[in-house]
Amino acid sequence: MAALLQLEKVTKSFGAVTVADAMSFEVNAGEALGVIGPNGAGKTSMFNLITGTLAPDSGKLLFEDVDITNTSAAKRCRAGMARSFQVPQPFSGLTVFENAMIAATQAGGMSSRAAESFCIDVLHQTELLDRANTLAGGLTLLGRKRLELTRALCARPSLLMLDEIAGGLTEAECTSLVQTIKDIHGRGVTIIWIEHVVHALLAVVDKLMVIDFGRKIAEGEPRAIMESPEVQEIYLGIEVDA
Ligand SMILES: Nc1ncnc2c1ncn2[C@@H]1O[C@H](COP(=O)(O)OP(=O)(O)OP(=O)(O)O)[C@@H](O)[C@H]1O
């Protein structure tokens, strides 16, 4: 598999707080990478560094083998990166369909005519088609999460980044959203998914990475990583017998 995204020794600090400490990893095309770590570990900052809303102090990022370290966030989006936000950020006074259209025409660069049928298709995938004419502000939490996913997909990403999209959902809602994400991944979209709801992640991802204090603690086959004593102790705070 070819690497779609590569981070090489990416470092970023805010004063004394280091959010990325010589962070290196790669994500192959077609892969789903899960990212876990304690609060404040630097997970969202990592997304900001990848999408270009945060500039690294040092290190290099490559997307499709092109050095994007100094590429603007807008250009990275056009190149195929899209993300959802931890706190859904729709245009609350616009309908679900209008939100999708804005994403498809602005982030996805589509003409309005082409975007219409495309958005219907995306809303079908994200199971929001029957809410197309609902105001975004009137959606349930699950609906808002699905709209976050819709808006990211409308940017036509080859790399989809999900930031705690399962947070706050009931068990049944989580199961339903996981199935949607599985289907999206099944269509060949490469995914990086930050999540505290670990069982949701494990249902989808091929690889799991654990970070703490901006450092990569472990990376590999998800269940093996979860069972490793180092991860249990550092991430879960569980004392493991020597
Ligand atoms: N712009 C900023 N200026 C100063 N400190 C920041 C900034 N952005 C993030 N931080 C700090 O960097 C650390 C990492 O934050 P980040 O949001 O990346 O963590 P996280 O792993 O996503 O946490 P959570 O799981 O709680 O969402 C935190 O201590 C945070 O307060």
Automatic annotation (TrEMBL):
SUPFAM superfamilies: P-loop containing nucleoside triphosphate hydrolases. InterPro entries: AAA+_ATPase, ABC_AA/LPS_Transport, ABC_transporter-like_ATP-bd, BCA_ABC_TP_C, P-loop_NTPase. GO terms for cellular component: plasma membrane. The keyword Magnesium does not apply. Transmembrane segments: none annotated. It comes from the Bacteria. Residues 5-238 form the ABC transporter domain. Keywords: ATP-binding, Nucleotide-binding, Transport. One of its GO terms (biological process) is L-alanine transport. One of its GO terms (molecular function) is L-valine transmembrane transporter activity. Pfam families: ABC_tran, BCA_ABC_TP_C. PANTHER family: AMINO ACID ABC TRANSPORTER ATP-BINDING PROTEIN, CONSERVED COMPONENT OF ABC TRANSPORTER FOR NATURAL AMINO ACIDS-RELATED. This is Amino acid/amide ABC transporter ATP-binding protein 1 (HAAT family). It comes from Yoonia sediminilitoris.
